[in-house]
Sequence to fold (349 residues):
Amino acid sequence: MFILKVISGIVFGIITLLVSPEIASAHERWFVESGTHSGERLGLDVTSVFLLFGAVFLGAMAYTNERSGWTRGIRIPFQSTRSLLPRGMEWRVVASLSGIMLIINSIMGVFLASEFILPQQAPFILGQIGQMVIGLLLVSQMYFAVGGALVLLVAVPIAAIYLPANLLIDYVVEFAALAAALILVGLTSCPDRLFRKWIKVPSERLEHLALPIIRIGTGLTLVILALHNKLLNPDIALTFLDKYAFNFMPHIGLPWFTNLHFVFAAGVAEATLGLILMLGLATRFVAAVILGFFITTLIMLGPMELVGHLPLLGIMFLLIYRGSGRYSLAAFRGVRSPGRKEAEAESIQ
Fold:
């Protein structure tokens, strides 16, 4: 009976991790200006232990999945599709969605994210104009490297100088990884017209780097968001739940599952999925799950959720389409998954 209870608890934890819609609203600060639950923390109780077991079990499932031949069957259709579609199409989707977000931000008077409002003074107005230019460059599909370089060398430093560090930490890795990936794409896979004649880039040595950079950067961003806004300081997340009743657990007969438990579950899920992405395990499945969360919260929270997550929607499409690429745990000899060689070959196609 005890073993049955343990197994049931682990399964319950995994289900809670996967169905928790709050994970998709990783940026609670878009909807809540300040917290009202300062100092509240969740102690280690039976529910939180089961949730942690669920996270470990989910990670083990992802690792086991990479060792099985199942992923090879999933990979083959994507490889066939890529041979039929235009080269670099997936990166054009990422660039277009990122550019659209930056353009809308400039029109709405915010910088990089909806909570970053710069004063309407000459230097900051130039920053808004620069953001618009970067967005137009990315949407134009002609200058990936230039747009990425401007994000990395202009937009991120401006944000670092003028915006609070406790807010910037949620975005800096995401934008830096996106920018670095776009620079590499612009110099290799989809050469920028501006550089095509002037710069000779050893594309065979650099082309494969863009995919793991954006995968690892996105995974690290999820881990940072989980720690910063949920696990270490649940104040904002709890205030968000006061405003938006996402905690459905009491309505299905679990009244003891408090908002603190829900925030803990969302944070553990976010951190777990982020770590799995960083390791490159079950990448397509994880990206599809996150994409499903985005769609769920888009329906529940409206257009603001869509605009802010446009780059991540493109990145999830990219990861579903391309998989993990190189520099993943599956690529190391210790895993020896049946599809390892195919995965490495796929990453450079």
In short: The chain has a mean pLDDT of 79.
